[in-house]
Write a structure and sequence with these properties.
The complex is a heterodimer of chains A (562) and B (135). Chain A is built from 21 helices and 2 strands. Chain A has helices at 3-29, 39-42, 54-65, 69-77, 82-109, 116-124, 127-157, 162-180, 187-204, 220-237, 244-269, 289-296, 304-317, 324-348, 353-359, 367-383, 387-423, 432-451, 462-486, 492-518, 522-556, and strands spanning 214-215, 218-219. In chain A, strands 1-2 form a two-stranded antiparallel ribbon. In chain A, strand 1 and strand 2 (218-219) form a beta hairpin. The N and C termini of chain A lie far apart (50 Å). The model of chain A has no long low-confidence stretch (mean pLDDT 87). Chain B has one domain (4-17, 28-134). Chain B contains 4 helices and 4 strands; from the N terminus they run βαβααββα. A 4-stranded mixed beta sheet of chain B has the order 2-1-3-4, with helices on both faces. In chain B, strand 1, helix 1 and strand 2 form a beta-alpha-beta unit. In chain B, helix 1 crosses helix 4 (120-134). The model of chain B has no long low-confidence stretch (mean pLDDT 89). Classes of the chains: A mainly alpha (562), B alpha+beta (135).
């Protein structure tokens, strides 16, 4: 099977999904009304509420949703073969993510652009806000731990990436100073900054950096994880203009350059997929494909965090309600296209099946390495880039995305801890240093608790992250479903994804609960229990909210909410 | 030809790398002393009266767009379109591309103001002159 076939089928399916299914959802289910006065017009103020052309808004929305997770999930999931991952990405994007992302915008627009968090509280009840923040905190905890582990593994596997990755911080600091303190124009510092970054990538192979195999009793992997969290702690305390804001310019350019380079290389090279369609020789210890596939690939099939983006800014800029289809649904397709990149890189970027099996010898073991090596092979053979440059390029791209998430994640965790300090009258939690130490400490405990003394096994956390992300998506789908009931519209198109997600989430949690128990991984077991309780709560609230609204709709008459 | 006004300014949100996993926007912008993007918020709020004045005064007679400069996939094509539409010379186009900052007003493909929002009345007067000239 040639990778071009996968590209054509995948992107072709997305096109059909957009032309047919999104039109059906928009016209028959959400009944998007071009004459409905969106909040951007009703509350137009030039500050938060600004009617925006749909093409401009799509660019904003897509740049906001893209990240590293559509890479990691599929890169892990192809261990079961390329076909299941491909099918879940394609069908998940068309029937789940598109409906979810578009529905989140629609639900927010119909409620004065209020956020999903606020709407969840209305629909589910006052406890929902606390549940929401607990789910977010757990998400951040897991993603920080996983990304710390993932970046450390990349530094060890590809020492050429160390200098460029840390140089990117210096580049970002300089860009931040020039743009936000000296008022220099944005374009040239960004372009020059990215060019300098690519130069350091080019010379990265000449200056590989490795930490000692052992230092203070810590293996190199463990040393990197700790260093990364020290970085994340410091970065999260810096004013945002210094480092976080300028990274938006570097990462944005990298995203589009990376996507463009990779797809061009695939078209030119037309590599063959060497991985099996269905892997009937999965390594020992690989969990069952059902339900784990559906929580291993979250972003790229459906991601709860997109609901936050949709209802945070996008809904405040939506010009016409009918633009929901292009901005929300098409934005989800873009994410699916990113996931396809990961699938192709990790299944078609190797010369032989044996080479692929050497990397995929353990669940979660080779995923990022596979992405980097496979992607680099395709780009270097397809476009003639030196292989080492390509390897470092892909590694640094993944690291920069993940590193930015760590900075943000620790910062957000600190905010949530401080909010709890206020709610529960614990003033010590309001101290920045204390809250940051607690956040970082929790992440380190998870990374080493899950990954062992070196932290190297930490990617085992990823499915738990996926379940929590799906839970967030479930909350959003619940809000959309309740609104459809109020409007007396068919609910199958959201209830089926909602039920499927909750079922897979709960099954995956139960399966992993048993695994963690038998392997005596008590920290992960506790985390699993917390998420399981939250998932069961969401499932019960979903049933209760649905029945309540249905009864109310029957009493008030069809379409009364409109 | 309808004059084009592009307000370039950042939105109060993070816009990279964390779409799936945690980002600073919406409910997650912090409160009180933890409020993030204070400077951006100030720029957004300062732009409000300027935007409202132009929209109220001209309505659809002036094409007003607000674009986040991080939204390169939209900003660059829009600027290039304006360069052709309003016959901006290559040197002026270069100056526009080079000069876009976190607070910029671009009128008909040329930088009108950067670093600070202009006086609304002055912008109104200049747009009226442009409208008369093109009429």
């Amino acid at each position: 099977m040639n990778a071009i076939v996968l590209v054509v089928i995948g992107l072709g399916a997305f096109a059909v999904g957009y032309l047919v299914y999104s039109r059906f959802i928009s016209e028959r289910i959400y009944k998007l009304d071009p004459d409905f006065q969106t909040p951007s017009h009703a509350m137009e103020d030039g500050v938060d509420f600004v009617p925006t052309n749909k093409f401009v808004l799509w660019g904003h929305h897509f740049t906001s949703v893209a990240g590293a997770a559509p890479i990691i999930g599929p890169a892990i999931a192809v261990i079961w073969g390329w076909l299941p991952a491909f099918l879940w990405v394609v069908f998940g994007t068309i029937f789940f993510a598109g409906v979810h992302d578009a529905g989140a915008i629609w639900a927010s627009v119909r409620n004065k652009a209020r956020s999903v968090g606020a709407l969840t509280a209305d629909v589910v009840g006052p406890r929902a806000r606390s549940l929401f923040m607990i789910v977010i905190f757990l998400l951040l905890l897991m993603v920080n731990a996983v990304f710390g582990v993932a970046i450390a593994k990349l530094f060890i596997s590809f020492p050429s990436s160390v200098v460029p990755s840390w140089s990117a911080i210096v580049v970002a600091l300089i860009i931040g100073y020039l743009i936000y303190r000296r008022g220099v124009g944005l374009l040239w510092p960004s372009i020059i900054g990215v060019a300098v970054l690519y130069f350091t990538i080019y010379i990265g192979d000449s200056v590989p950096m490795q930490l000692p195999d052992q230092m203070f009793g810590l293996a190199a992997n463990a040393q990197w994880i700790i260093l990364l969290f020290v970085y994340a702690a410091i970065a999260s305390l810096l004013p945002v203009w210094m480092l976080l804001q300028p990274r938006d310019y570097i990462n944005g350019l990298q995203l589009f350059v990376g996507l463009g380079v990779f797809y061009l290389a695939v078209i030119v090279l037309a590599p063959d997929v060497v991985a099996p369609a269905i892997n009937d020789a999965v390594p020992d210890g690989t969990p069952p494909i059902v339900p784990l596939l559906f929580v291993t690939i979250a972003c790229g099939a459906i991601s709860g965090f997109h609901g936050l983006v949709a209802s945070g800014t996008t809904s405040k800029q939506l010009d016409k309600e009918t633009d929901v289809r292009f901005v929300g649904y098409f934005g989800a397709l873009g994410e699916g296209a990113l996931a396809l990149v990961a699938i192709i890189a990790t299944t078609a970027g190797f010369a032989t099946l044996g080479e692929w099996q050497d990397i995929y010898n353990k669940f979660g073991g080779g995923s990022l390495t596979a992405f980097v090596n496979g992607g680099a092979n395709i780009v270097s053979e397809g476009l003639g880039f030196p292989r080492e440059f390509s390897v470092t390029l892909f590694t640094v791209m993944a690291i920069l995305f993940a590193g930015t998430t760590m900075d943000t994640g620790v910062r957000l965790q600190r905010y949530i801890i401080q909010e709890w300090g206020t709610i529960y009258s614990l003033p010590i939690l309001n101290n920045n240093a204390v809250a940051t130490l607690l956040a970082v400490g929790a992440c380190l405990a998870l990374a080493f608790g899950a990954g062992g003394p070196t932290g190297a096994g930490g990617l085992i956390i990823w499915p738990l992250f996926g379940t929590t992300n799906q839970l967030l998506a479930g909350l959003t789908l619940l809000v959309i479903t309740v609104m459809l009931v109020k409007f007396a519209r068919p609910v199958w198109y959201t209830i089926v994804p909602l039920t499927f997600l909750l079922a897979m989430t709960i099954l995956a949690l139960l399966f992993q609960l048993w695994e963690f128990y038998t392997q005596a991984k008590w920290l992960l077991l506790c985390l699993d229990v917390v998420i399981l309780v939250a998932a069961i709560f969401v499932a019960l609230e979903a049933v209760s909210a649905f029945m309540r609204e249905r009864k109310q709709a029957m009493l008030t008459g069809p379409g009364a909410a409109e | 030809m309808t004059p084009s006004v592009i307000f370039v300014r950042e939105w109060e949100q993070q816009m990279s790398s964390s779409g799936c996993c945690g980002r600073l926007q919406g409910d997650l912008l912090g409160t009180g002393k933890n409020r993030v993007f204070v400077e951006r918020r100030r720029i957004m709020e300062a732009m409000g009266p300027l935007y409202q004045t132009i929209k109220t005064r001209f309505g659809p007679k002036v094409d007003v767009t607000v674009i986040d400069p991080r939204n390169l996939v939209s900003l660059i094509p829009r600027l290039i379109g304006d360069f052709f539409r309003y016959r901006v010379s290559p040197s002026q186009a270069f100056a526009t591309l080079s000069g876009v900052s976190t607070q910029t007003v671009i009128v008909n493909g040329r930088i009108y103001a950067r670093g600070a929002w202009p006086n609304p009345n002055v912008l109104v007067a200049d747009l009226m002159r442009l409208s008369r000239r093109s009429a």
